[in-house]
Amino acid sequence: MTARISYDDVEVGTELPAAEFPVTRDTLVRYAGASGDFNPIHWNEKFAKEVGLPDVIAHGMFTMAEAVRVVTDWTGDPGAVVEYGVRFTKPVVVPNDEKGAVIEVTGKVAAKLDDEARTVRVDLVATSDGQKVLGMSRAVVRLA
Amino acid sequence: MALDQSFVGRTYPATAPYEVGREKIREFAEAIGDANPAYTDPAAARALGYPDVIAPPTFVFAVTFKAAGEVIQDPQLGLDYSRVVHGDQRFAYTRPVRAGDRLTVTSTIEKIKSMAGSDFLTIRGEVHDERGEHVVTAHTMLVARAAEEA
Questions:
Q1: Phi and psi of A134, rounded to 5°?
Q2: Which Gene3D superfamilies does this chain map to (chain A) (predicted)?
Q3: What is the pLDDT of residues A115-140, one digit of tens each?
Q4: CB-based contact (8 Å) between A72 and chain B?
Q5: Per-residue confidence band for B148, with pLDDT thresholds at 50, 70 and 90
Q6: Pick from B106, B54, B4, B118: which is nearest to A80 by CA?
Q7: Distance between CA atoms of A86 and A139, rounded to whole angstroms?
Q8: Which terminus of chain B faces fewer neighbouring Cβ atoms within 10 Å, N or C?
């Protein structure tokens, strides 16, 4: 376990490099296959609208997977993540066009938790179409 | 209808082992568009100190959620799955999941809350490897929305 960011080099407020993750219908079909989540609200527009959604929506777990990439891209070592949690507050609506949707993620160090374990808490903010799509999105990461 | 509080603490039998394959991890990493070599290149994973490729942090959800099906479909609990949405999700890792792991999941009903006709059910899935060592615990909160007034 060798995160490339040193605990001593970060402080509360340190910002992680932000990232944007595009999502199209194609992305959702691939994610359905890889994750085994074939709920039709993630690929069938007719079904999604029948159950009261504005359109097909992304898997919440897909959004969760993308958001933590800001952390794993920063540390280099995905195994440095010791805790990760989110609340699903709003769906990411994915229209059936070439553009689809974009998930924008920012993160910053919110607390230095343990000088010995060298763990920090990173708070993430994920938005799509100007709406916050995750709440309480936090990761605890062990740094070098 | 509110879920029965007496189910809190109920633990379901451990699942049969799920064997984590390199190609399944690769497929998942590609599906989330993540090119981190630790997911696909055993040498890169070894350089980070792991014996084989590791899985992205949320990969294990597919395994724990399948195990949670025992709870969700427990006829005694009586959850109306057609009204269920995923409320929140948390993972606490002892180590990352890796290729070659044979994972078993033990699901426990951690919490039941009822508010304004909606039920909030938290299921804890404890994941162990073939040596019985802890890998990760998943906490999954599901919301069964209140049935609409007829």
A1: -125, 145
A2: Hotdog Thioesterase
A3: 999 999 999 999 999 999 999 999 99
A4: yes
A5: low
A6: B54
A7: 9
A8: C
Selecting from B32, B49, B93 the residue whose C-beta is nearest the C-beta of A82 gives B93
Name the nearest CA neighbour of A24 among A84, A92, A90, A91. A92
Instruction: Tell the CATH superfamily of the A7-22+59-142 domain.
Output: Hotdog Thioesterase (3.10.129.10)
**Is the separation of the CB atoms in B20 and B55 below 8 Å?**
yes
Q: What are B141's two structure tokens?
A: 């909160």
Residues 6+ apart with CB under 8 A from A55: A45, A48, A49, A93, A94, A95, A96
Domains defined for chain B, CATH in brackets = 5-21+57-144 (3.10.129.10)
**Residues B108, B8: Cα–Cα separation, whole Å:** 8
Residue A37 to residue B62, Cβ atoms within 8 A = yes
- In chain B, the DSSP E strands lie at 18-19, 84-93, 102-115, 118-128, 134-144
Tell me whether residues A84 and B91 touch, CB distance under 8 A. yes
Domain ranges of chain A: 7-22+59-142
Q: State how far residue B35 is from chain A, nearest Cα, in angstroms.
A: 10
Residues 98-137 of B with CB under 8 A from A: none
Is residue A63 over pLDDT 60?
Answer: yes
Determine contact, residues B59/B127, Cβ cutoff 8 Å: no
Judge whether residue B133 has pLDDT over 90.
yes
